[in-house]
Amino acid sequence: MIVDAxxxxxxxGWTSDVRxxxxxxxxxxxxxxQPKHRGQLGLPSKALQSYVDGDLTAIDDVPVxxxxxxxxxxxxxVLRKVPAGAPVTYTEFAARAGRPAAxxxxxxxxxxxxxxxxxxxxxxLRLDGTLxxxxxxxxxxxxxxxxxxx
Length: 150
Fold this sequence. Notes:
By secondary structure, the protein is mostly helical. The protein is built from six helices and four strands.
């Protein structure tokens, strides 16, 4: 996980390669020099642990900073409102984002999301209910959805 000085998540995912994770952030937020590994990253770390321990809403109020165009920024905010245990389809996500015909753009918003888990793109499924894609692998997406279905 990469956080800024205000404890806002810039990027997160299921990897130990901080440099690869940093490539998901805007160029202005990219790491210079060697990354610093810290065991705890304040509020995001506490929220992550609470989420894993079963408080599925713990990640909801963690600030996230991603920067892109108007649609993507809005779409990521919409994703943050999809509740745990209630996944939506890409079609439903596009409609919630205010562009019902833009299903591919909605899928792109998921694919370009650097702050996985905190912007829960794993909660978006194909129309037939299958998983679709996930940057961190379908087994991770399946685990997250199963964890949230408890």
